[in-house]
Specification:
Layout lengths: L7 E3 L20 H8 L5 H13 L11 E2 L5 E5 L7 H4 L7 H13 L5 E5 L12 H6 L1 H9 L6 E5 L1 H10 L13 E5 L2 E6 L4 H5 L5 H17 L3
Parallel strand pairs: 3-4, 3-5, 5-7
Antiparallel strand pairs: 1-6, 2-4, 6-7
Helix pairs in contact: 4-9, 6-7
The structure holds uracil.
Amino acid sequence: MNRHGAGMVSLASPRCATDVIASDVADAVSDVVQTDLLSCGRCPRLRHYLKQLRHQYPDYWNRPVPASGNTDAPLQIIGLAPGLHGANRTGRPFKGDASGDLLWRVLSQLGIEDQVQITNVVKCLPRNNLPLASEVRRCQRFLVPELSAMPMTSVILALGGVAHKAIVQALDARQVDYPFGHSHCHQIGERWVVDSYHCSRYNVQTGRLTETMFRDVVELAYQFATDQPK
Ligand code: URA
């Protein structure tokens, strides 16, 4: 048990866009927050990197990447940060690179592409896919309203330990009460969070995460979400 009166349970087993396009801005996240996001330059390191990339890749999005998908979806999937040639190119989370290909393939196999909202804990591309802790913290101003915009009955699928920790922070809970673990399921206040290893090419190539493991955990999170009393 934790201070929210809830515990952690371990579940039993647990299109690649080529054009540069803006995300279909999540409708329930206020316009003010979305406008603030698109013009955000609060993290100097990330701002400079994106500026540099606008010269190197002028056809890429090269801006903060907003959430995509329905805010009334049963499942909210939260990754780390845009990938250089994926979300940073297309302007959509998890569109256009290997991790996105795996995520969308699994969603398509499960027939739930239209029933998810997808975002990242850090909205701007970090060098080497490694955001600083201060950047994760600063980006909470966008993650918190994205979480609040979803129905309380929706389930959050955290992709990777950094996303998991940022979500715990955004839900105002103590990290020590909610350790990350693949296929672990946490009740945090009134929200449920399911953890998965990140579906990165690295994790797949090293065998940490297989496609079957990933499909199982996405399916579990989705089933869990749709089983929630409405
Ligand atoms: N693309 C994203 O949008 N997020 C990730 O975490 C990885 C790739």
